[in-house]
Amino acid sequence: MNLHKYEKIWLTLGSASLVLFLLIIGFAAFWKGTHPQSHIETIDPQNVEAHEAFQPENLGLTEVEDGKFIVNMVASAFMYDFGKDADGKQVERIRVPKGSTVLYQITSKDVVHGFQVAGTNVNMMVEPGHISRYETVMKNVGEFTVVCNEYCGIGHHLMYGTVEVYE
Ligand code: CUA
């Protein structure tokens, strides 16, 4: 068979770009790892309390300065631990004033979970062994439901919470 000169050129270019593409994908996935920037800090999932942010008394909402908040949470099958209130009841609702800057910090004790505040731009993957962080300004007033968007087992749909932004 006699290939036309241009056919040869295009076949070569086509194969070369395919190989290059696969090399880039392989490099990104296996060598660099797939963890986004926010997953840079690691943690022992068996002992999350060793990290100051995830000690029971530091869970939930803390105002660090005027209009700036941190929310520390521990995800596990099948709940988000936002800490306990003064009466010892499990906190399920975070309340911040409109316009607050909120840094969400979350880690998992067991499997991969999600942490999405529906209707906002807060949407993280929560991996055991890593701390996921996301800082945002809560611009809109309303009640926003926290959902787990990574299938984590039989109680996946039971993982919830509420972020309330008030005027
Ligand atoms: Cu946790 Cu799905």
From TrEMBL:
Membrane-spanning parts: 9-31
Highest taxon of the lineage: Bacteria
Domain Cytochrome oxidase subunit II copper A binding: 17-167
UniProt cross-references to InterPro entries, sorted A to Z: Ba3_CcO_II_C, CcO_II-like_C, Copper_CuA, Cupredoxin, NosZ/Cyto_c_oxidase_sub2
Catalytic activity from the UniProt record: 4 Fe(II)-[cytochrome c] + O2 + 8 H(+)(in) = 4 Fe(III)-[cytochrome c] + 2 H2O + 4 H(+)(out)
Function: Subunits I and II form the functional core of the enzyme complex. Electrons originating in cytochrome c are transferred via heme a and Cu(A) to the binuclear center formed by heme a3 and Cu(B).
Subcellular location: Cell envelope
Chief location: other
Pfam families hit by this protein: COX2
Assigned keywords, A-Z: Copper, Membrane, Metal-binding, Transmembrane, Transmembrane helix
Organism of this sequence: Sporosarcina siberiensis
Gene3D superfamilies in UniProt: Cupredoxins - blue copper proteins
Keyword Transmembrane included in the entry's annotation: yes
Name of protein: Cytochrome aa3 subunit 2
